[in-house]
Amino acid sequence: MRATLERSNLLKSLNHVHRVVERRNTIPILSNVLIRATGSELTLKATDLDLEILETIAADVGRPGATTVPAHMLYDIVRKLPDGSEVALETSADGQTLTVRSGRSNFSLQMLPETDFPDLTTGEFPIRFEMPASAFKTLIDRTQFAISTEETRYYLNGIYLHTPTIEGRTVLRAVATDGHRLARAQTNAPAGSEGMPGIIVPRKAVGEIQKLLESSEETATIELSETKIRVSFGGVILTSKLIDGTFPDYARVIPQGNDKLLKVDRGTFSNAVDRVSTIASERGRAVKLSLSSEGRLALTVNNPDSGSATEELDVDYQADPIDIGFNSKYLLDIAGQLKTGTALFKLADPGSPTLIQDDGDEDALYVLMPMRV
């Protein structure tokens, strides 16, 4: 194999694929990136057996072929080469090493045969649909922060995607919860997605999709089987196993009768919570919201070890007075996902979950469990 390409293109692709590779591997081939040169393209692929990323980039191929070399080492080499340089990749005649050459720099990397490299993409993907990459990223962005990190409840370690029909409208809905908070976002279901099975996309795949879609204005193609999801866009194909489990009936925890309505400027509220929570303890992080029927909101944090903080805001609130406590970090996470200028809180009592959403936007909602304060 012999191929030449721009360092910037190679670095960008290696940056995408090398993140999948675990630093410590008991299986040597999983520490490597697969490089395949054909026609006028170079394909890079990495996997951890649960997640695989494949990316195709333009290259000047002198001799087709394929091999595998240590992913993190190749990434570090290319990262340290000068901007604007060209990189030549060439396998040795004895099939033992890959030479990486750029200007006066010369590296030899030990290879492992590409025939040993596993393939996650085998099998049929019967469900296939397309949607704007930005719309898919928005669903993920608005829900991923609520994914549980508790490994014992593994079925909560991802985002639940499904296509319910509500009042004649079919939506593609994403849901995540960790038991303390719940995030739900939805968009009109793309053609071809109707009737898809509910799937749980694992946390690691969610994180990689987020990073890969960061600057993509393109269309994403999403393919599903009973056990895998494949997302393709702009020369990148991400394939991941799904979480084999049943997502709980999340609709039961979304309150329906919360009749105390609070409207507050999102930015002002978020900044105030951030300020008073400076004094909160790492363990507690509790902030008390005290609402009066005159439209005043007092935020209070008490920390026996360091002191207290209060701040008052003018708000739109006309119901009975209420004192309720929340985890300040969770409040800030949710406020960071709201898109309009006004946040709408629907409260019931100090011991019941609160519903939070953008005022006038039904496509994203958040449920937050209160804390004792």
Average residue-wise pLDDT = 94
Structural class: alpha+beta
Strand tally: 27
Low-confidence region ranges: none
Shape: elongated
The helix content, as a percent range, equals: 10-25%
How many H/I helices? Answer: 6
Q: What radius of gyration results from the CA coordinates?
A: 25 Å
- Roughly what fraction of the amino acids lie in strands? 35-45%
Largest sheet: 10 strands, antiparallel
- Separation of the first and last Cα atoms: 66 Å
Structure description:
The protein is an alpha+beta fold. 17% of the residues lie in helices and 43% in strands. It is built from 6 helices and 27 strands. Strands 11, 12, 13, 14, 15, 19, 23, 25, 26 and 27 form a 10-stranded antiparallel beta sheet that branches. A hairpin with a 3-residue loop joins strand 21 and strand 22 (307-314). The model has no long low-confidence stretch (mean pLDDT 94).
